[in-house]
Backbone:
């Protein structure tokens, strides 16, 4: 199985990309809804939670792992890579590579959680590849609870998106990395507020393309993955809200269950 | 020590009331910032977290405990009362009693987290005392992240408050229970949006008055409390944001520390 984890529901945007780009593989999703959100927490706490999440996927049969969470990718990937023996993929590097390909004016914007932005990982990776690119970041922490509440089209959400994007718009970025897997839920509003000329980078899409390439190059791992549509969506706290959002977003009935954090 | 716990920073509004109404007693505060917010989680998860929080206070010397969280009071008080041997106080009953005293037109409004509202505890307790009172509830979950972000006076916050209060305003309530300890941070906006004629009930104030009475009636417990200003504010994840809000809200420098959840 392809194991995918996130702090909560945001990773479902990555699942949607797996359905599109890698159809046919069985998915095991784990969302840590009992401890969501991660984005305002310290590095140490995020690392601890992320390791527990990855272990749950492994115990339940995952053969490769996608970290469907920018916060975890930004502050806990190196830590996880040391502890976990399976192939493990994060969303930051693929997004960085894609943004570098896309930008024309060498001005890239990044919105993410407070933890992701403070980590400065996007700036660091972009500058490693091309020090001439300017990177402008702004934390946009309230977008996570707005998405979790399902306020995807409300005027208040539009205003808050606009407020978070204004400083980046003034910097005349031509590429914007949506550095939180919750944000694709708000893609249309974000596109409208930042302007139609700015290209959006969805890290979920970028990572799934990398995974696809990896599976082509590693047929023995590809073969170990179960095929078929018997996907499992597990969370650490199963609430009606999660069930509703999962169904609406994925556009299909999915099997939902609960795995408790010890 | 008087032990006070909350899922995060909301309980600081109760601390402020303790400073005003019970000055001189040493406070031990614990905010479970590594797992905040509780308000959208299931009953079972909230009970587990609440018991762990209370045990941390007891291990560190609390002699009485105030649950400075409506969500925990609403869904985990009976559970905690069975497990904990110390005097323990919750914020729901005192708020209910006060609201019943205040209302003239017998129409009481309640705003709270999703878990608090779904518990229907306010409705149940009010009807036990007076079945003729009508209770109108509305969950207001986004107010917690708005407060945690420090967006106390932004236009978006005003709009969201207005949206949450409108259904209650239409019901012509004359009393509104702020059934989440985060909400007193937004007291002015709430008062303006619901109208000056509506009386607000702050459960934090109500519970501290009850504790004061209890201490007068139980001198042996009152004597066991340490006096002095050496308050301790502990959280499960110490972030700069918490430090900033604690300092601003309490209007003084406070000693902050971290106690990890195992």
Residues:
């Amino acid at each position: 199985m392809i194991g995918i984890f996130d702090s909560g529901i945001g990773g479902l945007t990555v699942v949607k990309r797996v359905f599109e780009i890698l159809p046919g593989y069985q998915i095991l999703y784990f969302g840590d809804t009992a401890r969501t959100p991660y984005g305002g927490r310290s590095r140490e706490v995020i690392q601890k939670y992320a390791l527990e999440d990855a272990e749950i996927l492994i115990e339940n049969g995952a053969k490769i792992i996608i970290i469907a969470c920018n916060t975890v990718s930004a502050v806990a990937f190196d830590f996880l890579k040391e502890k976990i023996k399976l192939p493990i993929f994060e969303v930051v590097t693929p997004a960085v590579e894609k943004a570098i390909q896309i930008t024309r004016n060498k001005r890239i914007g990044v919105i993410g959680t407070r933890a992701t932005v403070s980590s400065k990982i996007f700036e660091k990776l972009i500058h490693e590849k091309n020090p001439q690119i300017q990177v402008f970041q702004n934390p946009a922490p309230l977008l996570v609870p707005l998405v979790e509440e399902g306020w995807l089209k409300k005027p208040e959400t539009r205003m808050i998106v606009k407020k978070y994007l204004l400083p980046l718009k003034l910097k005349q970025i031509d590429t914007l990395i949506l550095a939180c897997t919750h944000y694709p839920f708000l893609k249309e509003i974000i596109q409208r507020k930042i302007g139609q000329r700015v290209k959006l980078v969805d890290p979920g899409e970028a990572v799934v393309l990398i995974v696809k390439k990896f599976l082509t190059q590693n047929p023995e791992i590809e073969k170990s993955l179960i095929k078929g549509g018997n996907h499992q969506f597990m969370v650490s706290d199963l609430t009606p809200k999660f069930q509703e959002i999962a169904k609406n977003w994925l556009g299909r009935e999915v099997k939902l269950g609960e795995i408790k954090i010890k």
